[in-house]
Design brief:
Length: about 280
Amino acid sequence: MGGFSDRWWTSADGLRLYARDYPGADGDARLPVICIHGLTRNSKDFEDVAPGIAAAGRRVLVLDVRGRGRSDRDAVPGNYNVGTYAADVIALMDALGIARAAFVGTSMGGLITMTLTLIAPDRVAAGLLNDVGPELDPAGIARIAGYAGKAAAIGDWGEAAAYAERTNGAAFPGRPPTFWDAFARRVMRDEGGKPALDYDPAIASAVAPGAIPDMWPLFAAFSAGRVISLVRGGISDLITADIAARMQAAAPHLDLTAVPDVGHAPMLDEPEAVAAIGRFLAAAP
């Protein structure tokens, strides 16, 4: 795991937010990369991915979106939405003097990235979406809603690993116990000697039942004039092969990669995903 520095910044509404800051290796200057995790995750999701990007010569910032990880929880659950999250990213970039960046967004992180291209298009030079797009299969939404924000009685790390497998086993079939132990330690924290989910349960309001908005205009804004990539799980229940094909039809320059035997969402350390990230970094400014 590569070394990183802790970075803190303040949101427009006064929350103290956190990011990991990985310095880029020596070489020609390139735009930094900002990595944004999914709904119930945090910056630990990129602990194996960010060092590789930094080794390729780019500074990497990995956020804890508000309500997750080391960032403050929000007393107003209605603020847990992609528009607010996008504003928080802009505040981070301003605090660090970053005018433009390339983005890697997993699930919700990809929605935040696309939103940024609509409200602050000059900030996003390139974007890689990890198993997310302008259309989401209702089956995947229902599965995520089934566990996000729900209380879980977890007594030790063995039970934490079992919980991780129970809620995500369909996405990573046949994985060994060591995989689920590592997975649990990314999505949970130690709280009084016991594992606890590392997010505010109120974030689940973002996946409350209801109509999914038409996000194709968002994708149009995202894809216009940018290097863009999509990595999808080969057995994803959120971004189906049909949705991915329609994304590529709408944006023929989209670099599309499917990671076999993985659902929602790839960890991005799979060989196919690593290769996709490499192509993305080579093409991005």
